């Protein structure tokens, strides 16, 4: 832990040493950062664009779209959702080909897969979800339960932690249809034991759906090895796909013929251009598509997937741990004396790539920080999230950002 007597110069020197020793340091230059941004600490909400992204999108508009026009569908676009899904699965999900697709928004994919899971477990009347899950997950479960006449079993969890196997055990039973949890909790950064929890749910006869929004691309994920049934995740956080970039879905291979997705659209049909009178699902993972995929919106994530492949998830995770450990040291030294409370796990094995700290003044602090080019993320009621995207974040940024938080707190008294 950083010495309580460390000066600003000492902290700057330590950050510089960590940056110099970072084996991934050269990759930071691959990202766009505005000159006025001193520290970007919100990569867990919206990743920075790659420097190549403007060119990639421009080339697509000019050549693939502008040059090939409608021919692009036959030549390359029809299989883009599954082709890109397979590459993402290989690089970041620990999943074999044929189980992952790029599709709708996270919310729509959650709806489709939760409904499909419920239909595949007839007679079971309960959906299990934790009370501190991301609002979309909870809201969707509430709506689906009302729509289908099911009951919700709410898992209690502390706001500064997450769901553990022992928290879930009393709520599982013969009525459990599907369990919906986040692999990394959006508020605290708690990293769930996905393998153990998935096994628990299977022992009860239910299906397990993991929300990977805050873990994909930054935490080691082994969907096949863990025997995960279903997963959904966004691509605009650690996959740097840009605002509103399409989400991905995962359906384990042996479940694909069993599950029937509820939004039967033409792109999930066996032959989309047959214009058939009735729906016949495509074989395999493609049946989980609905409408026309957003080919243009997929372009920014392609470069990031390859950058993660170049770095390797183990190296990304190792830097994530070092970044968050450094952040915790600075929080203890610079923020705790001002009444700040850590609201994330200290154990790196139970922590994703963001750290949350609580203080009643953080709403006002956040606005001050943004005005000064330091960009963390505020989450009610009084949490400041420090989101550290390993490939684009330097240790110097972390030091500057947390130092700015300390300064703003002193100014506000």
TrEMBL record:
<dbReference type="InterPro" id="IPR010111">
    <property type="entry name" value="Kynureninase"/>
</dbReference>
<comment type="function">
    <text>Catalyzes the cleavage of L-kynurenine (L-Kyn) and L-3-hydroxykynurenine (L-3OHKyn) into anthranilic acid (AA) and 3-hydroxyanthranilic acid (3-OHAA), respectively.</text>
</comment>
<dbReference type="InterPro" id="IPR015421">
    <property type="entry name" value="PyrdxlP-dep_Trfase_major"/>
</dbReference>
<keyword id="KW-0808">Transferase</keyword>
<keyword id="KW-0662">Pyridine nucleotide biosynthesis</keyword>
<comment type="subunit">
    <text>Homodimer.</text>
</comment>
<dbReference type="GO" id="GO:0043420">
    <property type="term" value="P:anthranilate metabolic process"/>
</dbReference>
<keyword id="KW-0378">Hydrolase</keyword>
<comment type="pathway">
    <text>Cofactor biosynthesis; NAD(+) biosynthesis; quinolinate from L-kynurenine: step 2/3.</text>
</comment>
<protein>
    <recommendedName>
        <fullName>Kynureninase</fullName>
        <ecNumber>3.7.1.3</ecNumber>
    </recommendedName>
</protein>
<dbReference type="GO" id="GO:0030429">
    <property type="term" value="F:kynureninase activity"/>
</dbReference>
<comment type="similarity">
    <text>Belongs to the kynureninase family.</text>
</comment>
<keyword id="KW-0032">Aminotransferase</keyword>
<dbReference type="GO" id="GO:0030170">
    <property type="term" value="F:pyridoxal phosphate binding"/>
</dbReference>
<dbReference type="GO" id="GO:0019441">
    <property type="term" value="P:L-tryptophan catabolic process to kynurenine"/>
</dbReference>
<dbReference type="GO" id="GO:0009435">
    <property type="term" value="P:NAD+ biosynthetic process"/>
</dbReference>
<dbReference type="InterPro" id="IPR015424">
    <property type="entry name" value="PyrdxlP-dep_Trfase"/>
</dbReference>
<dbReference type="GO" id="GO:0008483">
    <property type="term" value="F:transaminase activity"/>
</dbReference>
<comment type="pathway">
    <text>Amino-acid degradation; L-kynurenine degradation; L-alanine and anthranilate from L-kynurenine: step 1/1.</text>
</comment>
<dbReference type="Pfam" id="PF22580">
    <property type="entry name" value="KYNU_C"/>
</dbReference>
<dbReference type="GO" id="GO:0005737">
    <property type="term" value="C:cytoplasm"/>
</dbReference>
<keyword id="KW-0663">Pyridoxal phosphate</keyword>
<dbReference type="InterPro" id="IPR015422">
    <property type="entry name" value="PyrdxlP-dep_Trfase_small"/>
</dbReference>
